[in-house]
Amino acid sequence: MDRAGGMPPYRQLMLQVRDAVRLGWLKPGDRLPTAREVVAASGVNQHTVLKAYRELELAGVLEVRQGSGTFVKDSAGTSAGAGVLTELQQQLENWVRIAHQAGLDDEDMKALLSAALARKVSKK
Amino acid sequence: MDRAGGMPPYRQLMLQVRDAVRLGWLKPGDRLPTAREVVAASGVNQHTVLKAYRELELAGVLEVRQGSGTFVKDSAGTSAGAGVLTELQQQLENWVRIAHQAGLDDEDMKALLSAALARKVSKK
Amino acid sequence: MDRAGGMPPYRQLMLQVRDAVRLGWLKPGDRLPTAREVVAASGVNQHTVLKAYRELELAGVLEVRQGSGTFVKDSAGTSAGAGVLTELQQQLENWVRIAHQAGLDDEDMKALLSAALARKVSKK
Amino acid sequence: MDRAGGMPPYRQLMLQVRDAVRLGWLKPGDRLPTAREVVAASGVNQHTVLKAYRELELAGVLEVRQGSGTFVKDSAGTSAGAGVLTELQQQLENWVRIAHQAGLDDEDMKALLSAALARKVSKK
DNA sequence: GTGGTCTAGACCACC
DNA sequence: GTGGTCTAGACCACT
Q1: Which domains does chain D have, with CATH numbers?
Q2: Cβ <8 Å between C79 and D108
Q3: Are the C-beta atoms of residues B33 and B82 closer than 8 Å to each other?
Q4: Which of B110, C67, C104, D21 has the fewest CB atoms within 10 Å of its CB?
Q5: In terms of CA atoms, which chain C residue is nearest residue D112?
């Protein structure tokens, strides 16, 4: 949890879960930690966790089953095969290493990616 | 301006300016558009623009000269040579193209980069 | 507010606003009472009101403008002309009067309507 | 069973049974399906069914006879003659057909009925 | 002064 | 024990 970032905690939680699903760390059908477990581990308020879960349910990523827990929806999941994903990941890590040696910090790299993505869109 | 993102408008403005400086689109000494011009172009409240400029001044990125405008500070700027930057940029765009063809969307790529950066930190 | 009905207060509020829009009592562009005004008038908690407004925003009925208030969305509105609506309304009131004289109470009539609607669907 | 409606399942069951009695589909002395049968047919938890039956017994609508099942109480039943009821029913269906052709959906009609009933009360 | 979020503690419905 | 709601009071971002 990054208190200084200006991003509300419930949204940070949403991003973390959503990214975990995107990266294949959480697969369809997996059960998420209980709201109370997250509270115990991270210190945020239970309502914050429940709000994040509920928003992700509306977004179609999670499925809440009364009395039994919160699960990753079957329809949600990685858009690409695991093999391709790890290869892309290695290439990116390589690039990160080079950029780091050139003196760029994390924010620089994120800015470069945003710019590259924006250029891709404008090409469309 | 992304109204639904949960990030306060003044912070979105800060990011845009800061990234423009990081990427070399704005260089030390460049004059930024007047608050009124930004209002006319984007529709946000003038206070929001002024708050973003003020925060960036405190962060050491901008310099406000009474009566003449807001400028990029001389000490601020890209941390790497322009040549290296464009090369990294091309490599990244290449990677983006491949990832796009593999079916990944923008958010997937941002998640991959975040994961790669987090792994780099843990290596330290 | 009906405390005994088993329906959560925020949902009762949602229904009231939504029905007011359906019946033309609230038209697109109209400004809804402030959350604090509703609190003063009805005694429910401010969060309850805000949750109702927010859910109606997600449902596409309302539009929340930071700092200026909550408004009925332009795209939301009555599905039929006002003239037709008042005529249907008068016919219904007539029917209600007859049913009332026949000894039916409000719940009886709602049950009859539900049954009639269900039969319409099964005809489709 | 409507999972998204916000109304607790046991209350939805209560309404269904009570309305069936109101409309004459269930008459005094009729035997209701066993809790297990309802479970098999609808998938809700057995406790939910039993709670609904128990509440309806307290409300004076049902009568539980140990070992033989659950029955509609003799004192419960339609408040009007069957003849009048079917006539009112036909008039309502007529109205529903007209309203449907005018572009109103089910929720619109329920809102109109609620408004008509509220106006009747205020006349008293 | 507008809506929005965070925290805290209590109670409820469901499994 | 699971998620869900209500209430209460404080603080923040935006107009």
Answers
A1: 3-72 (1.10.10.10), 82-123 (no CATH)
A2: yes
A3: no
A4: C67
A5: C89
